[in-house]
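Dear colleague,

Following up on yesterday's call, I've attached the two folding results inline so they're easy to grep. Please treat them as preliminary; we haven't cross-checked anything against experimental data yet. The first protein's sequence and structure tokens come first.
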Amino acid sequence: MGTQESIVIENQINEHFKQYQYEKDNFNIDCNVHQNKGMGEYVYSLDVNLSETIPPEFIIIIDRSGSMGSDFNYIITKTIPEVLKALGYNNRKIHLITFESYVNYFSLSQSELSQSKLNEAGSTYMAQSFLALEKIFSFAKDKCKHFRILTISDGVLNDQGITKQKGEMLYQKYKDSFKINSQCVRLKNNSRNVETVGLVSVLKFNNVKLCYLVEHNSKDISDLAKVIIPLFLNDGLSGSNLQIKGDDVNLRNNPWEKNNSNTQVLENGKITIFADKNVPLYVEDQTKIPFYINCKEGEEINSDNYEEIIGTEKLSHMFQKVRMNKILNTNESKKENKDITDYFKNLSQLTTKVDKSENNLEYLNEQIESINNDNRINNLNDDQKANYVQNLDEITRTLEINKLKKDNKKLKNQMNSLMQSNINLNNELYEMKIKLKNLENKIEFNNNYNEKNIDQNETENNSIKNDNEEKIKEIEKIERKEEEEREKKIKEKKERERKEREEEREYNIKEKEKKERERKEREEEREYNIKEKEKKERERKNRKK
């Protein structure tokens, strides 16, 4: 990829990310933290419920070489639009990377893909696709955290070696930065050999679920969408930018990793995060405001409950990663397999008295060591390698069988405990019956004793009753007499009070009459004085004349 082409692709990717405002994260998280003393680690079991109104970024990497023929345009115009519609992308643009002798990048919507005139051309060179993929990751790092990747090819790469190297370098750089569901389709055309190693380089980015190298016959190209859609349905990914963090702690998606990151990206559903210490965890989205999670203390991890806490699918995915690393056979993949082997070897030592035939830790350790020691894998052809990566039926079945055996043993122990409890209960019931019988005998004895004394008691009761009746009559007579005396006294008192009031009233009347007489006398005296005064005045005047 030349400098000019690189700049063009960068500009196109930048424009792609400019046109979207990613969804606001609404979430609910339940958390339990388990200590694994034997490994010196802590395991956070999270049940995450995120809003999923916007689907995640979708990257489609497709072989455009001449061998694809008309299948290429059919996939672009028919298959991919059908997949996008089923997954809810509507007219949301996706990333399209095509590889042949050159690599091209397009940001296209469902309707634009349906009308595309892109056709096959050139040879099969895939390595430069990782440069375009790196630019997408680089622009997306602070914008979105969830990706779906679909890779389709029908031939053998002309640059398999460099494709492996570039894929491994990009994986090591971004393996903890995003949640990725990566799936691949090997399009079979007659007896032509189809690439596996290059596809595994992209498949390895998957860190949310089991991944598949689906083999599909080009004669049935019209059914390809129906094969692809289930690979991405209900994968827990969305337009979320949500991350979980802890201060001064190393958080890891896989227990053997030695990264120094205190951050992990969240996706919907049940997830597991490994840590070197137990610290409070908090969630951050675009706002950068921490929201602390209430993590409850769970049971301590041992060989009995490890699989239940981690999950069978997570263990199967770990095992699948070992197989993919063995297929790639790069220095980095060999180192990762060594780290995985060492981890499970130490983990298997947690097994103590558990029957090893029922212990999945011991089983996985043996299988992983067997893979690392098997040099025949590099001699497999592409079809055999593809089947080797994705055919986990035997492993999954064994894990499930061992789990069922363990669960069956637990049920038997519970049944034995219940049976013993039942025996104890029967013994207690027997003792209770004896006590009840003794109680009935005592009651019968008391009844017989009471019957013998009932006549005597009745006679005494009648005599007492008669005496009581006489006393009651006497008391009632006395009470009536006392009541009469009280009523008489009350009546006499009322009469005295009435007379006193009457006398007082008469006295008041007399006093009033007396005062009236005195007033009249004063009035007469006043009139007499006035007349006398007038008489004297007339006499005075007469004398003067």
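Below is the second protein, in the same order (sequence, then structure):
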Amino acid sequence: MKAFAHEELFKLDGDVPLVRAVPYGVQHILAMFVANLAPIVIVAGVAGLGAEQTGTLIQSAMLIAGIGTLIQLFPLWRIGSGLPIVMGISFTFVTVLCGVVATYGYSTAIGAIMVGGVIEGVLGLFAKYWRRIISPIVAAVVVTSIGFSLLGVGAESFGGGSGAEDFASFENLLLGTVSLVACLAFQVMAKGKTKQLSVLFGLVIGYAVAVLMGRVDFGGFADLQLFALPQLMPFTPEFNVGAIVSVTLIFLVSATETIGDTSALALVGLNRDVRERELSGSIACDGFVSTLSACFGCLPITSFSQNVGLVAMTKVVNRKAIATGAVIMVLAAFLPVISAVFSSLPEAVLGGCTIMMFGNIIVSGFQMIARAGFTQRNITIAALSLAVGIGFTQVSALFGNFPELVQSVFAQNCVAVVFLVAVAANLALPREAVTAKAAPAASAEAAGAAPAEAAGAAFAEDVPVEAVSAEGPALSEAAPAPATAAAAPVCAVPASAGGPAAAAVAADAADDEQASALS
């Protein structure tokens, strides 16, 4: 066997033999496998797609995740970051897409994803002109709202799925509880990196119990082929302005997540700040590959924070090692048995695991708000955006006098409302609330206080924020914020809904001159 220097794994382009690289690639697949496929199952269930159609989409999800990861690793022109970023189907879009498919149908969702992906991709190419408007507090409240918006989705799955005839039956509640308890038990007992497989373990246990209870439909295994090609354009796209606007707004949210994940990865994996070219390419990949995903009938793709966390723990950034995992995902897309197993998974089993994943997103958002700093300005932005975004969409009649387009975009889409209110407040509110603290800080320093503590009080908005997306938390060892490890989620997403998980932190300056550090 070729001589191997272990430190090559810690270099982007280190010379690592294939046999040595594969285990690290497989590790990344296991960390995101469930969250990559779960959004498809949830949205397909709401759309009323059959097991065969769902299985085809699951195949495509694995293909797109592999392709997206390879483009991030080895950019095409200006698309891709060149960093070891793992891509997968995003949980961020689940709520809005469930609404779109329920109202207009799955084909309309595909059309909206195609358009929204192109818009995000183009914006990514020009990211340096706009990304600073997404401050840490904006990203934090958006991630929090994503978590709240997904709780209903998780609860419906726990009960057996939207529209199920046996919804909330004893059998469904039992399956959901078994899966949840298995997930929690594994999280408590597992050691180190294996904790990331807790949701996968919960799904396996829940599936086994469902088989014993006779709750698994094996019809999808009839006449199953050994190999099959993912289907191109399985749905004819339809275009609706309201659906396009709704989905495009969430693409902007997804871009903020990608900013945070990319910045965090450069910091914890390469010990340096992210470069403008890397950030731009990462967002462009997010968008354009999402459009490609729609061509295969799939949902949008995004970076996965749990894989950023894996890099933080292992420090393995070698692109060749990560690429082996991406290639395995592409090859798995040609094996229908994988999609058949996952599409036969009872909704209640999936709900038992995803309900904790969605709860983790909310907690991650709270952590990010704390790390952004509890200045009066940040408190105002968070309180206003969450109150208006979540509160108003709970009473959709408030939008009754608005044009139909506005109603279709905002009436039941709390994430879009929170995002717009947070951005508007961030731009409108004066920054004197931060600057005003500089004087007390200086006085404290003069009185003998530690300079670092004084600086922390003066620039609370510049506190580094843990990169967490809707796919799940990134467990960064390098995060300077206090109690990061102690605040780790109870049931870390192995995987984005996605992530995810899952969130974005954009560089911003407390005085428009300093860029915030990201972790």
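For the second protein, one point worth flagging: The two ends are 38 Å apart (CA to CA).

Best wishes,
A.L.
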